[in-house]
Amino acid sequence: MGNGLSKGKKKGKLNKPGAVIRKVLPEPEPISTNVKWLQEELRLSQIRVLLLEATIDIADERFGTSMRKKVGARQS
Fold first, then answer.
1. Collapsing DSSP states into helix, strand and coil, what is residue 7?
2. Which residues pair with 21 in a beta bridge?
3. Distance between CA atoms of 15 and 5, rounded to whole angstroms?
4. What is the pTM for the complete model shown?
């Protein structure tokens, strides 16, 4: 039979091991190698993190809240 299955063997076995379905994958985008640009982006991201952490600290002091997520096991 022309369905690719061997007669009398386990179902799902192909007669030809090289007969594999191949998908066409899109071409990957080129990776940026501009190190100075990446370093500047990292620096700006670190500044944003510091500003956000400072904003949370100020809000906690001003409003008497704790905005940070509590970590650890909950006690019932």
1. coil
2. none
3. 6
4. 0.48
